[in-house]
Amino acid sequence: MADMGRLTRRGFLIGTSGALLAFATACSTGGDGDGGSAAASGATLTDKYGQTQVPVDPQRVVSVGYNDQDAILALGTVPVGVFDWYGNQPDAVWPWAHDLLAGATPAIIGTASTGINVEKVAGTNPDLILGTYSGITQSQYDKLSALAPTVTQPAEFADYGVPWQDQTRIIGEALGRSDKAEELVAGVQDKFASVAAANPAFKGKTVIVGALKGPGQFGVYGPEDPKVRFFTELGFVNPPVTEQITTTNFAPISTEQLTLADADLLVWYAGGGFGDKLRAELAATPVYQELEVVKNGRAIILEDEAAEAMTWSTVLSLPYALDQIPPRIAPLLAT
User: Fold this and answer.
1) pLDDT reading at 309 higher than 90
2) Residue limits of the Fe/B12 periplasmic-binding domain (predicted)?
């Protein structure tokens, strides 16, 4: 799962927000024949806990995943309940997606500090529960599926590790809007391809993404973390040592193990206002200063709205991250 630190609220002034919302709306308001208008679903979906028969044209959809609400909204459904990951966004929906609520106010059915509140989920009277980007346990699944058909994280990925493409397609199938899901995925994939083509220096370069977990304690994100996938989708590769560090989402490393972070590019994620603390810790860590990637100026700290859009990693957030982050990375690899 992406870093669980609660973010401080900032103004989110996105110059391209209108274009993003127009893109999402265009993919969310199709007419007859485009797989969009009340398309019948009733599909049988398979997840970590088995198979689920979803209802046809569900109307009361609850998002218990950490970011599932973005895909649900992009596909034209307003959820009646959402999980509040960060605790600092109105209605637990980021600015790049908030207009798609169309004035609705979903119930908050859980937070990062409290987890899913099954009673609050029940209070929304759901007919479908979605939690594809999650770490839902068997016990939670049993309780949720007693309320309504429930689709959780796919078994083939680590918890909190479903790629945004798979997430969008799964939710699209659950909502009976697979055609729209494919349109959304194709649009973002085209943008990734365009940015990668404009930055050929990214191809084949090794990348490690890390974060500060506490005083003198660092960590490295695994290959299935969305922040790592953001870079690999742009042509970067995971160094083999990453597989040795972790096969899950995130693994702590000791100060001595920082030598493992000597890749072509070292990215520090410092969302939630942790940038200053991270800088202080790195400045006080001599072994870090000796890394070749640091000496060569190929380490960067990402801590602003673009970093959060990258971390959120949905069809609605990624276009903004793609506009903002690659221009910061490219000069580093030119050195």
Assistant:
1) yes
2) 60-333
